[in-house]
Amino acid sequence: MSELYIRVAEDENEEPMEIPSEDDGTILLSSVAAQFPGACGLRYRNPESQCMRGVRLVEGVLHAPENDWGNLVYVVNYPKDNKRKMDEIDAASAVKVKRGFQKTSDLIVLGLPWKTTEQDLKDYFTTFGEVIMVQVKRDLKTGNSKGFGFVRFTDYETQTKVIAQRHMIDGRWCDCKLPNSKACPDEPMRSRKIFVGRCTEDMTTDELRQYFMQYGEVTDVFIPKPFRAFAFVTFADDQVAQALCGEDLIIKGISVHISNAEPKHNNSRQMMDRGRFGAVHQLFPNFPGGSASLAAMFDRSQYQFPSSHV
């Protein structure tokens, strides 16, 4: 039987490697482990059911499904098939050894190119220090990258150094931040919506959507009409939204400021106060400028708008 090569990858989304079979069409587990250290088996996605299936392993020998390897890409199995969990266990052990030192946290990496893989991230951040975990967030249905991911380091000093600078990854500038939800784990889920201040009238919803998609999946863009120099952008992930808050970004050559979208209870308060303005206007119908002037007077005395709104 002529030598047959089987396509094997560490992840479904990675470029596969061809591994030679034996004369009888089987593959030795040792052949797989030589290219993927720690491998304990193979699995593949069934073309009909789209479910993952395991490849039969007998005494260190992998047998082709229904005696035919076909043109499928086989994915490597590791013990427990959960490398991230194992890495986190290793991280916990490292922390115990280094008692008295500050713990590291998962850092969110924003603005990743769509093609960036976990291995690309690990290769880049390893230049700063020992990396415990890397992860690229992907869409569950398509498997495509969402444009952001996470990284964790062993040493807190390395984490601090990484946060303090921007990073050029696969030809694009990326930012590493400590997600706000990590800083206050007891707080309820944060808003996925951001307030974009200092917008210009020539900015369209499509342009804003296209710009913010580099940070993560955008579910909605809203520009009030008539135009009021601001917009709202909603992300699929609240961590992306909160990581951008407080930033000044350049869109179409204009510096815009990002802040939290106003809570609902503030909107209720404004509606109540508008009712008061109407009542005052009925008492003083000849007040110069009418209710608009009254509203402006109350706004200046009682409200503090985000700096980006001015």
Structure description:
The protein is elongated and about 75 Å long. The strands form 4 sheets. Strands 2-1-8-4-5 form a 5-stranded mixed beta sheet, covered by helices on one side. It has a 5-stranded antiparallel beta sheet with strand order 10-11-9-13-12, sandwiched between helices. A 5-stranded antiparallel beta sheet has the order 15-16-14-18-17. The model is unreliable at 94-100, 183-188, 264-269 and 289-305 (pLDDT under 50). It has helices at residues 29-35, 83-97, 118-125, 156-163, 180-183, 205-212, 238-244, 264-283, 290-302; strands at 5-9, 17-20, 27-28, 41-45, 52-54, 57-58, 61-62, 73-77, 107-110, 131-138, 145-153, 167-169, 172-177, 193-197, 218-222, 230-235, 248-251, 254-260. It has 310 residues and is α+β, with helices and mostly antiparallel strands.
Biggest β-sheet, characterized? 5 strands, mixed
Identify the overall geometry: elongated
Helix content: 25-40%
* Element order: H for helix, E for strand: EEEHEEEEEHEHEEHEEHEHEEHEEHH
What strand order characterises the main sheet?
Answer: 2-1-8-4-5
